[in-house]
Q: What sequence folds into this?
């Protein structure tokens, strides 16, 4: 099938490459010409496991990037994969969705035959029906009928770092559609993948995405609350959650207590869902608590640190791990950010190391010391805080001997040395 993907960010690029891998003819539309050139040369613009090889197998063959919308009329399906960043009030900013829908509509003006416009971006319930559909119909001059244009909402459930594998091995595929025909044709884009298919209305599909992310975030904050109680009682929360997670009604995933959740999705989506709830007159009591626990968690690292080393003024503190999680160079909403900000507020000197995320953190916090390896950060440090669960950190051992005092506090359970104290264990 010929597919157009609008937006060459993380979701758009991974989806476009994986659709090409499934055998489709894919046109990726991206306004940034530098990204277009890189993609056509087979160079991914993001760090994602397995993407490199897959992109070089398909770039300039059945995957072509361009900054023009002119390929859209030849495609059967166009997927919208543009960003929905949080606005200043916490609600999702839908301006990029609106302009993508307008451009798609204009491109479809002279299209003959049936076309499906599908939204993959995370959008509040009602967006596909009330924003995308009217804009596409208005600018294309088409009627919403079985002969012209169908609308689909197809949320993504891709974890950064594991996005290619999540795409190719999904737990489920959700297809919300305006009518039976649109959904029936659209689901063919996934033929070749084995997964339960969930067919829904457009709005239910939109709500499934927010609900999934909010539930996973809730599991994490729940584990952190239990972890904080365990810490006071001298109990290892990881032993507790092992016993809890084996109950199939609960499952073992997303029960790892620590410094809280970060990234470009959970904080943004929980906040958008809370905003949505308030808009319809429902106070999101549970989600308020989820966010409050998550906001407090990084400060617990500082409290533990102060208990161990006293006043932080002039102390050298090593931050090991800056990415919001392992296997990514993304530092957005990383729990290391509030920790570093607070350390600096208290007059500490920060020396930071991350295998991938130093340059993205440098854009957020430019004026701390960025180190080329863990030893450089740990050398003569008064204490060290571990903020990301990179597997290679489990090998750190002798490097800690270079510290002025061996105070090691873990915000993620990853070290194997015996001297570390955990945030909740
Ligand atoms: C998340 C979801 O897991 C994906 O299903 C979803 O598609 C994606 O958001 C999105 O909306 O696009 P992602 O943000 O890449 O994916 O990262 P996760 O692996 O879910 O981790 C999020 C945060 O939770 C990280 O900071 C991680 O360290 C933290 N976490 C995760 C915990 O603190 N404890 C856990 O047990 C698991």
A:
């Amino acid at each position: 099938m010929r597919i157009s993907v609008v937006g060459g960010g993380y979701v758009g690029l991974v989806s476009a490459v994986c659709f090409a891998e499934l055998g489709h003819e894919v046109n990726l539309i991206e306004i940034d010409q530098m990204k277009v050139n890189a993609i056509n040369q087979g160079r991914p613009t993001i760090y994602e496991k397995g993407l490199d090889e897959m992109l070089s197998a398909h770039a300039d063959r059945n995957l072509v990037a361009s900054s023009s919308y002119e390929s859209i009329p030849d495609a059967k399906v166009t997927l919208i994969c543009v960003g929905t960043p949080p606005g200043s009030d916490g609600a999702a900013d839908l301006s990029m969705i609106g302009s993508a829908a307008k451009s798609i509509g204009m491109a479809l003006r002279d299209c003959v035959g049936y076309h499906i416009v599908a939204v993959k971006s995370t959008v509040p319930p009602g967006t596909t029906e009330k924003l995308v559909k009217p804009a596409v119909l208005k600018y294309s001059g088409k009627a919403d009928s079985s002969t012209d244009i169908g609308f689909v909402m197809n949320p993504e459930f891709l974890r950064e770092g594991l996005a290619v594998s999540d795409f190719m091995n999904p737990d489920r595929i959700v297809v919300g559609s305006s009518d039976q025909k649109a959904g029936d044709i659209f689901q063919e884009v996934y033929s070749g993948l084995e997964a339960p298919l969930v067919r829904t209305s457009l709005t239910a599909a939109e709500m499934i995405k927010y609900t999934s992310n909010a539930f996973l975030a809730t599991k994490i904050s729940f584990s952190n609350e239990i972890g904080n109680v365990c810490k006071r009682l001298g109990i290892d929360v990881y032993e507790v959650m092992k016993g809890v997670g084996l109950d199939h009604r609960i499952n073992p995933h997303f029960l790892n207590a620590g410094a809280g959740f970060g990234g470009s999705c959970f904080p943004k989506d929980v906040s958008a869902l809370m905003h949505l709830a308030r808009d319809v007159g429902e106070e999101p009591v549970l989600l308020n608590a989820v966010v409050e626990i998550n906001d407090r968690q990084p400060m617990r690292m500082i409290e533990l640190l102060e208990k161990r080393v006293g006043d932080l003024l002039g102390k050298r503190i090593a931050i090991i791990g800056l990415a919001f999680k392992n296997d990514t160079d993304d530092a957005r909403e990383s729990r290391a950010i509030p920790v570093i900000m607070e350390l600096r507020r208290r007059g500490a000197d920060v020396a930071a190391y991350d295998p991938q995320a130093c340059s993205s953190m440098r854009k957020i916090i430019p004026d701390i010391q960025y180190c080329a390896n863990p030893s450089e950060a740990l050398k003569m440090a008064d204490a060290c805080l571990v903020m990301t669960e990179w597997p290679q950190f489990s090998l750190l051992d002798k490097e800690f001997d270079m510290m002025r005092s061996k105070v090691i506090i873990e915000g993620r359970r990853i070290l194997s040395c015996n001297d570390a104290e955990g945030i909740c264990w």
Notes: The longest helix spans residues 202-233. DSSP finds 14 helices and 14 strands in the chain.
